[in-house]
């Protein structure tokens, strides 16, 4: 039985494009610090290709960790969050709930990169919600609330706790 966090393949392809948009908005935070490291950009490009139906789900599930080391190699927490946004976007091929992870890490990257602008996180959340199509919104609404389903990334753990959990909760409230 599939997890309710998986979503159908067609819904994963829909939310992958939005997740890539969220991650791409903070890519410069990573690239400013690591201009020769192309892993997050490559992850976003693969996410977009998956969204367009150009990449096979099974192959992408096996490849989703290929660019994951970029976050570990980042020097700042903001750059690491931006790399994680790209990694979460690439993981949408496996489970649709990772789209909310990509969005949350993008908000975290913006927040960490702009410590003198406490409103930056809210502005990013507002942008993310404003750039949802009706189809993407409907797909994301099918996901269980953060922290309530143990069978995926929105279950108890990293994405459900602390700042990331609060961001995802706010995004899910904003979907309604």
Structure description:
49% of the residues are buried. The protein has one domain (9-175). 64% of the residues lie in helices and 0% in strands. With 176 residues, the protein is mainly α. The protein is globular, with a radius of gyration of 15 Å. The longest helix is centred in the first third of the chain and has 17 residues, at 9-25. The model has no long low-confidence stretch (mean pLDDT 92). The protein has helices at residues 9-25, 27-33, 39-51, 57-63, 69-73, 77-90, 98-113, 120-130, 134-141, 162-175. The two termini are 27 Å apart.
Topology:
Blueprint: H1 9-25, H2 27-33, H3 39-51, H4 57-63, H5 69-73, H6 77-90, H7 98-113, H8 120-130, H9 134-141, H10 162-175
Helix pairs in contact: 1-3, 1-6, 1-7, 1-9, 2-6, 3-6, 6-7, 7-8, 7-10
